[in-house]
Structure formats: structure tokens, C-alpha cells
Design goal:
Length: 340
């Protein structure tokens, strides 16, 4: 029997890759998106040329539209990716940020509760729910920042500490997802995602930094590093993220009502300067970013402890940083006209 999946925000970077992946696995895929993000219409065109997928144009802020979309059929799985994704945008327009991330998620949950209460649900949250982590001791080692006494990274038992309107809106949605498992028995799972990168990512300066650096380096665009470039993040290739989604959808009862950190973990980390060096080596040309002052609230290091998801499902990242960035560069080079 063919399984049904609804991917909300399915024309974005993660969504279009997820739709392609699950369609290839034999799922019947329906994409829901309002096509407001740059590149979303192009992503959707690419997907529909490859796969037979359904599409509904709708906005998560519209409760009636969400109810209608979920009423169309009983879904086996729902992947909720629709979001306002930039901290800077949330500061400039906190009401819109709240309406998309917090109210939009409530609309999604209510529609699922009414029409597909047995569906396995994954929500794309963020590591920003942990806040600034000022109490963690950070040192400089080998030209990069690192935790001095937290070698495995930040785990899920860390207390939540929402910073910025974005942190508040995503954090509220994160907690609503978990509570709907407690109160209503939905099979909701939260993924607190780190830096995801890969093809179909139209990175910009304030969001999607790995893709933005690669785009700027390849196409000779102006590139600015805020701070000293020794900042470190764990990075995860899109193929590994999709494998994590699939692992939870195969065993939803194991993960229901829980939050998991999903990133590259300690084995897949990258500093800004290391990415510049990697790009120079791969492209065979110098990449000379400008430098500017640190941005408010920027962490010197964030690395996810991803052991919990591994224990629950057996999942582990497989794509190395050099390999993954190389694949991204190849995709940008093959599609450079999309970035003109």
C-alpha cells in the first residue's frame, strides 16, 4: 500500500530535496508551500519535472487553508518545514516571524489533530532554542574555537533559553509539538537542526552560510565575515538529514513526543576560515572575504551532541565535510544562471 506524506514548506531547500527523496522511495508526495521564498518556484519546477507530486499553494498562517489541506486525505506522515528562518528578519518584523513560526505551527497541529491524528509528524526546529550558552567555556585551539569541556557538544538535556524573536517563535513551536504528543497523543517529533547544506539551497548572507560562501566564492560576489572567522559550527549534508527523517518515519513510536539534535556532530564541524580554505582549494583561486565586527549574539562555537538520535534509530551522518561541500559547489556551478 502506497504511503502518503505531506511536506509543508516543500518547495524550499530542505523540502524539495525531501519531496524528491520520498517520491523516489515510493511515497505519494504532496507539497504545500506559499512560494514566497527566493528560488521556491524554481525548486518546484525542478521537482515536478522529475516526480509526480501533488502541489497545494497555501500559507501556514491561514488556519482554514491548513484545515482544507489536511482534510484532503489521511496522511501517514507530515514533515513541517515551513518557517521564517532568519534571526535578522525576526528582529525587523517580529509579528510576522511569530505568525509564521508559532501561529503557523499551531494551525498545522490543529489540522493534523482533526484529520490525520495517526500520522507521524516531524517538525524542523533549530538549535537556537538553546540560547547563547554563555556558561560553556570556549577556548581557541588550532586556529578555531572549541568547547573546553563539552567534547560531544550540546545535548538535549540542556535547558532551553530563547533569544531573539526567532528563537522565541521557533521555541514556542518546538514546545507545542512536544506537548501535542503529551496532551493529544499525536506522534510528533522535534528535530533541533544545525547548519544544513546542499543542492537547491539559495543561501544569503543572514541564512544558509555554507551555501552563501560557496555561491559568493564561485560567482565572485562580495563576501563578508563578521568576527574573526574562527567561529565553528557542526554542519550536516542534506542527504544525511533526509536519512534521519526516514529513520524516524520508519519507527515513529520510538521518537514520538521527543526532541532530537540533528546536525553533523563533533565529527562534522567547520569554521568560517576553514570553509574559505576549502573553497580556495576546490576552485583553484583565491577567495578574499572582507571582515567586519561581530554580530550581536553570534556564538563562537555551536556543536550538537547527536548521540540521542543515534541511540533511538541507529542514524549517523555519512557525508564528510569536504565531500559534501564539493557536491554543493558542483551543483552551484551547474546552475549558475539561477544566481544571476
Amino acid at each position: 500500500m502506497t504511503r502518503e506524506i505531506l511536506i509543508i514548506g516543500g518547495a524550499g531547500f530542505i523540502g524539495v530535496n525531501a519531496a524528491d527523496f520520498f517520491a523516489a522511495q515510493g511515497w505519494r508526495v504532496t507539497v504545500l508551500d506559499n512560494l514566497s521564498r527566493r528560488g521556491a518556484d524554481r525548486n518546484l519546477d525542478w521537482l515536478r519535472h522529475r516526480r509526480n507530486v501533488g502541489f497545494t499553494k497555501a500559507d501556514v498562517r491561514d488556519a482554514g487553508a491548513m484545515d482544507a489541506a489536511l482534510a484532503e486525505r489521511a496522511y501517514d506522515a507530515v514533515l513541517h518545514l515551513a518557517a521564517q528562518v532568519a534571526v535578522t528578519t525576526s528582529v525587523a518584523n517580529p509579528r510576522e516571524d511569530f505568525e509564521v513560526n508559532a501561529l503557523g505551527t499551531l494551525n498545522v497541529l490543529e489540522a493534523i489533530r482533526q484529520h490525520s491524528p495517526r500520522a507521524a509528524v516531524i517538525f524542523a526546529s533549530t538549535n537556537k532554542v538553546y540560547g547563547k550558552l554563555d556558561d560553556l567555556n570556549v577556548i581557541e585551539r588550532d586556529g578555531r574555537y572549541a568547547y573546553s569541556d563539552t567534547p560531544n557538544g550540546v545535548a538535549e538535556d540542556r535547558g532551553l533559553d530563547f533569544h531573539s524573536p526567532y528563537g522565541c517563535s521557533k521555541g514556542a513551536a518546538d514546545q507545542y509539538m512536544i506537548d501535542y504528543a503529551r496532551i493529544y497523543g499525536l506522534k510528533t517529533t522535534v528535530f533541533r537542526q544545525s547548519c544544513i547544506y546542499g543542492p537547491h539551497q539559495f543561501g544569503v548572507e543572514d541564512q544558509g552560510w555554507v551555501a552563501w560562501f560557496a555561491i559568493a566564492a564561485l560567482l565572485d560576489k562580495k563576501l563578508t565575515i563578521y568576527g574573526d572567522g574562527k567561529q565553528v559550527r557542526d554542519v550536516l549534508h542534506i542527504d544525511d538529514l533526509l536519512a534521519a527523517y526516514a529513520a524516524v518515519f520508519e519507527r515513529p513510536d520510538t521518537a514520538a513526543g521527543q526532541a532530537f539534535n540533528v546536525g553533523g556532530g563533533p565529527a562534522h564541524t567547520l569554521s568560517l576560515l576553514e570553509l574559505i580554505e576549502l573553497l580556495q582549494h576546490r576552485l583553484g583561486k583565491p577567495v578574499a572575504p572582507a571582515f567586519a565586527d561581530w554580530r550581536p549574539g553570534d556564538q563562537k562555537v555551536f556543536v550538537s551532541d547527536i548521540a540521542k538520535l543515534g541511540r533511538a534509530t541507529g542514524w549517523q551522518p555519512q557525508v564528510g565535510v569536504e565531500d559534501g561541500v564539493g557536491r554543493l559547489i558542483d551543483w552551484i556551478a551547474e546552475n549558475r544562471t539561477l544566481f544571476a
